[in-house]
Amino acid sequence: MNSQRTRWAIFASLFALMVISYTITLKWKIPTSPYIQKSYEFINSLPPSSVVIVSFDHEASSLPEIQPISQIILRHLFSRNQRIIGMSLFAEGTAIGYQTLNKLANEYGKKYGEDYVFLGFKPQHIAAILGMGESIKQVFPQDYLGNYSTEIPIMQGVENYQQIAAVISLADGDRTVQWIEYTGKKHGLKILGGFTAAMITTYDPYLSSGQLYSAIGGIVGAAEYEGILGLPGKGNRALLSQTAAHLFIVLLVIVGNIAYFRKRRGEK
Amino acid sequence: MDWGAVVAGLLTLAIYSFLYRDNPVYKFAESLLIGLSIGYALVTFWQTAVLDKLLHPLFHQGQLLLVVPLILGLLMFSRFSRRLSWLSRIPLALMIGAGAGAAIPAMLYERTLRQVSNSIQPLVTSDSQFNFSGLVVLAGLLSTLAYFYFSREHKGFLGGVAKVGTYFMMVFFGATFGYTVMSRMSTLIGRIDFLLTDFLHYLQ
Predict the structure, then answer these.
(1) Cβ-defined contact of A18 to B189 (cutoff 8 Å)
(2) How do residues A181-191 score in pLDDT, each as one tens digit?
(3) Residues contacting B121, CB < 8 A, separation 6+
(4) Interface predicted TM-score of the whole assembly (ipTM), two decimals
(5) Which residue of B has its CA nearest to A210?
(6) What CATH code is carried by the domain that includes residue A183?
């Protein structure tokens, strides 16, 4: 088989394996990692009606990985009757954030403006993060729908980070680092993260130093959180497909190595 | 019928047709994606920055001080003229100065000092237990730093320590690569989910 055909065979097999495994629903108990438990316990410990900022700091390309995390976090927050201020520091995250918030709010019968609001996108993210420490309403004079922030019920009494219980940054890049750097020491704000798996190693040092309170990483993190809440969703469903893909890749690595060493021995 | 899902499904298949070979259908979908992304970002920036933060408050709310950032912003466009391009240095200098002023203390504290302090852990904990993780962090830190010490040739003791540093880095790169593979698989799963549920209605 030539290399092009080998490539197609690998792609086709991987795709078929993932599609088949995605259609299978398994009820399995997923062990909870400490940081997922910490995120869960933190949200549980918040008094009802606390105000939490959920920042959709990601692009559309990472939606498949971030959406299961954002959905389970929002479900937990809404089920605990917390108030949510949604926003985005990425232009592409704006429409995604608004749609996700509305969808989940409808599930829980929450009212826009009273239980949650979406402030939209602000460019120059560092200026936005710093400015919100002074006045959130000045950085976001209007919400995503054009309502004046001063007239939105949920924003009454919310001036700056003093009234915010935590920031949950859903990121596929380093936006959460900026939340840590510009609010951490100055405002003592708790930052929680929801990341793509590719970003986990970037945030590990911040987790171990305590600068990042806790994190939910990738589809596995979402599945674990769904497990604690008892609300199996997209994370849980995707886990079997992801596991099958990983095992297939490991198998390919082993087969590739055996083929390489056999070829090298033959050449000697 | 949800025509949005139909169009999105067909575009997804058009993008994946690249796995067979480069073709005009793929090129069309790729160009559409780039064009839409730039268009969306441009409109969002125009609305949230130029209209909401500048033109509306300036002309409808009479916040006259905003003339200053308006002029500074316009000066950026002087780069298109060879004769006037020096004017763009004024807003650039302001941006760099303000940016550095805000970033340096925050980064120095959160990214450097806090991280350094977290890397230097006592090897014996307060309850007299040996801190093995602390030892691994210390060994990893020192050996990786030794690898990037180029003032002496990597021979003898320094060479040995630097070699250990490369192993630590390989573990890091391996973990990062593994997570990246995980991420890419998740993206594919997202598309599979879309194709099977919204596009084909095979799953609910």
Answers:
(1) yes
(2) 999 778 989 99
(3) B131, B133, B134, B137, B138
(4) 0.86
(5) B118
(6) 3.40.50
The domain containing residue A104 runs over which residues? 51-237
Q: Determine contact, residues A115/A84, Cβ cutoff 8 Å.
A: yes
Number of domains in chain A: 1
Determine how β-strand A191-195 pairs with β-strand A214-217.
parallel
How far is B81 from chain A, CA to nearest CA, in Å?
26
Domain extent listing, chain B: 1-62, 127-204
The helix or strand, by DSSP H or E, that contains position A78, with its residue range, turns out to be helix A63-79
Query: What global pTM score does this model have?
Result: 0.90
Evaluate whether residue A126 is within a structural domain: yes
Cα A13 from Cα B37, distance rounded (Å): 32
Tokens of B202: 């095979």
Q: Where are the alpha helices (DSSP H) in chain B?
A: 3-16, 24-45, 56-59, 67-76, 89-107, 114-119, 132-147, 156-194
Cβ pair B16, B24 in contact under 8 A: no
Specify whether the CB–CB gap between B28 and B14 falls below 8 A: yes
The DSSP letter of residue A153 is: G
Q: pLDDT > 70: what percent of chain A?
A: 100
Of chain B, the percentage scoring pLDDT greater than 70 comes to 100
Question: Domain for residue A196, yes or no?
Answer: yes
d(CA B40, CA B36): 6
Tens digit of each residue's pLDDT (9 = 90 or more) over A19-34: 999 999 887 788 999 9
For residue range A107-140, list pLDDT tens digits in order. 999 999 999 999 999 988 999 999 999 999 999 9
Neighbours of A257 (CB within 10 A): 10
Longest CA–CA separation in chain A, Å: 80
B32-73 tens-digit pLDDT: 999 999 999 899 889 888 998 899 999 999 999 999 999 999
Would A24 be classed as within a structural domain? no
Is residue A205 in a domain? yes
Q: Within an 8 Å CB–CB cutoff, is residue B163 touching chain A?
A: no
**CA A137 – CA A154 distance, rounded (Å):** 12
Query: To which H or E segment does residue A218 belong?
Result: helix A218-229
Cβ neighbours of A234 in B, within 8 Å: 193
Compute the Cα dihedral for A166, A167, A170, A173 and give only its sign. negative
Chain A residues 63-102 with CB within 8 Å of chain B: 63-65, 67, 91-92, 94
For chain A, the helix, strand and coil percentages under 3-state DSSP, each to the nearest 5: 60, 15, 25
* Mutation for testing the B interface, residue in A2, A3, A13, A65 having most B CBs under 10 Å: A65
